[in-house]
Amino acid sequence: MAGIRENESVESKRGRLSHRKGADAEREMAKLIQSSFPGHNVQRIGGNERRKNVLVGDIVCLMYDRWGLKVCKHAPECFFQGLFFDVKKRITRAVPTWWRKINDDCPVNRIPVLIYYHPQTKWMVRWKGEGAYLLKDWLQIIRAEYGQP
C-alpha cells in the first residue's frame, strides 16, 4: 500500500496521520488567536503536555523564553494563563465527551476552553459551561471580558 512505511500497519499510519491533523489544527488555532491578540505570544504546545507536573493545554501564551526574557508584553498578568485549551478537529463530533474530558484535565485555577471544528459552522468554542460560540464571536467576548483592544 502506497504511503505506508516498511513494517508499518494501516492502523499505525492512521494514528500518525490523525496526530498530524491534530497538531495542524492546534497550530492553526494558535496562529488565529495570536493574530487577534497582538503583544501576546500564543503558541501550540500540543498534546496537553505536562510542565512542572501540571497539564498546560494544547495552546498557551508563553510569557518568557528559555533564558527568562519577557516575550509576552502582558506578563506576568497575561489573561491567557487562566485559560486551559483543548483543540479538536474531527469529522465525528463528541462535544459532551470532549467537554467532560477537558473539565477532568483542567487545573483548578483555570477555565476550560474547548475549540472544535464543525464542517457547517467552522470553528466553535465552548467555555465556562456555556453554550457554543462561533470562534469570531468568542474572540470578541474575550476582548470585552479581559479589556483587550
SSE topology sketch:
Layout: H1 10-36, E1 42-44, E2 50-51, E3 54-55, E4 59-61, E5 83-88, H2 95-105, E6 111-118, E7 122-127, E8 132-134, H3 135-146
How does this model look, in words?
- By secondary structure, the chain is α+β, with helices and mostly antiparallel strands.
- It has a single domain, classed as Trna Endonuclease, Chain: A, domain 1.
- The chain has three helices and eight strands; from the N terminus they run αβββββαβββα.
- The strands form three sheets. A four-stranded mixed sheet has the order 5-6-7-8.
- A hairpin with a 3-residue loop joins β6 and β7.
- The longest helix has 27 residues.
- It is globular.
Radius of gyration: 17 Å
The count of helical stretches stands at 3
CATH topology: Trna Endonuclease, Chain: A, domain 1
Low-confidence stretches: none
**First and last CA, distance:** 52 Å
Compressed to H and E, one letter per element, the order equals: HEEEEEHEEEH
Query: What's the arrangement of strands in the largest beta sheet?
Result: 5-6-7-8
User: What is the residue-averaged pLDDT?
Assistant: 79
Biggest sheet details: 4 strands, mixed
| Alpha-beta content class | alpha+beta
Keywords for this entry:
single chain, two-stranded antiparallel ribbon, alpha+beta, 3 helices
Short description:
With 149 residues, the chain is α+β, with helices and mostly antiparallel strands. The protein has three helices and eight strands.
